[in-house]
Design a protein that fits this description.
This protein is an alpha/beta fold. The protein has a single domain (about 45-335), classed as Aminopeptidase, CATH 3.40.630. About 30% of the residues lie in helices and about 15% in strands. It has 9 helices and 7 strands; from the N terminus they run αβααβββαβαβαααβα. The chain has helices at about 10-15, 50-60, 70-85, 150-170, 205-210, 240-245, 245-260, 275-285, 320-335, and strands at about 25-30, 90-100, 105-115, 120-130, 175-180, 225, 290-295. It has a 7-stranded mixed sheet with strand order 1-2-3-5-4-6-7, with helices on both faces. β4, α4 (about 150-170) and β5 (about 175-180) form a beta-alpha-beta unit. The longest helix has 21 residues, at about 150-170. It is globular and about 55 Å long. The two termini are about 30 Å apart. Bound molecules: zinc ion. The site of zinc ion (ZN) has 5 residues, from loops.
């Protein structure tokens, strides 16, 4: 996601004038039957397993950096689609050519797992799965053009959602649940290369999906984005676009975290205004979405000192933080019917 916008109207302008790049698309659909559709009775909230989520993060990192147009990226895409299928989701891999800040054409893959696809009443959970091709904030200039592991920034949100998918596959759910792994979120214009500033160079996968959803007129009751949810003692302040788009959902999630004893991770405090995938899902699909994203007001970039550096490794992934976020989101979606 893009560096913090200082609550200017600039951010709002983003909403007004989305849609800037050409694209073409292809969809492949493989279906498996889901066993969750006819369960209307209240279902007990499953127990999120932090160790399992941690392993899903490690599995992604073990592929190497997941930069679009690379073999590692393609291999990890197959792994993610297969895992969602294994948990009982109907999987669509939406392929799209999107154009990056330097006019590189990225072969993006948005990976969509649908539970109870026949249901109209749907909830949306999403995260980006690609990793940044640059380490623009690394202390060592010599390695700034080397792609990062993206354990937290790219791996952690997906790891938590895979564990949630596993739990939904086991327990069922009365509603339709969509889990989307957006691509090309982190290929935005780098800070360490002096180029004329371009708009909308981040979140290219969600920008594409927002205009070309996997189902015509796709909508959902609300959406929850997870980004950088794995660092030790991470704090998730209330992000300002989220407050603007979906204040009730912010309240619901932060109250739930507090009730579960995770208030130490979810302070009732305002954070930054962050251009992230939720901005485009809100803007293009009119789905009220929030962003659960680490915020560190003491660090220069506001996201933690590892952000967009080669310190973003498995060393800095904590099972307890994954558990706090995962169990909170599970409790929220299982409180819905
Ligand atoms: Zn990033």
């Amino acid at each position: 996601m893009q560096r913090l916008l200082k609550y200017t109207t600039a951010g709002l302008a983003i909403m007004a004038n989305l849609l800037f790049f050409s694209c073409n698309s292809k969809q492949s659909t493989k279906t498996t039957n889901t066993k969750t559709s006819n369960t209307k009775k209240a279902i007990a909230t499953p127990v999120f397993n932090g160790d399992s989520a941690y392993q899903y993060v490690a599995n992604q990192v073990n592929f190497g950096p997941r930069v679009p147009n690379t073999d590692e990226h393609a291999a990890c895409a197959t792994y993610l689609a297969d895992e969602l299928k294994r948990f009982g989701a109907d999987v669509i891999v939406q392929e799209a050519d999107v154009v990056a800040f330097d006019n590189t054409v990225l072969k993006a893959k948005n990976i969509i797992g649908q539970f109870n696809p026949e249901q109209n009443n749907r909830l949306l959970l999403f995260a980006h799965w690609d990793t940044r091709p640059f380490a623009d904030y690394d202390k060592d200039p010599a390695i700034r053009n080397k792609p990062i592991d993206g354990a937290n920034d790219g791996g952690s949100g997906v790891g938590v959602l895979l564990e949630i998918a596993r739990q939904i596959g086991k327990s069922g759910h009365p509603l339709g649940i969509d889990i989307i792994f957006f691509d090309a979120e982190d290929y935005g214009q780098p800070a360490h290369i002096n180029l004329p500033q371009k708009d909308h160079t981040w979140c290219l996968g969600s920008q594409y999906w927002g205009q070309n959803p996997h189902r015509d007129n796709y909508t959902a009751r609300y959406g929850i984005l997870l980004d950088m949810v794995g660092a030790p003692n991470a704090l998730f302040y209330q992000e300002r676009y989220s407050i603007q788009f979906a204040p009730d959902l912010v309240k619901k999630v932060w109250n739930k975290a507090y009730d579960l004893g995770y208030g130490n991770h979810f302070p009732f405090e305002l954070g930054g205004m962050i251009t992230d995938d939720h901005v485009y899902v809100n803007g293009l699909r009119n789905i009220p979405c929030i962003d659960i994203i680490q915020y560190d007001p003491s660090s220069e970039q506001s996201f933690g000192s590892y952000w967009h550096t080669h310190d973003d490794t498995m060393e800095f992934i904590d099972k307890n933080t994954l558990k706090a976020v995962g169990q909170t989101v599970l409790e929220v979606i299982y409180s819905e019917n």
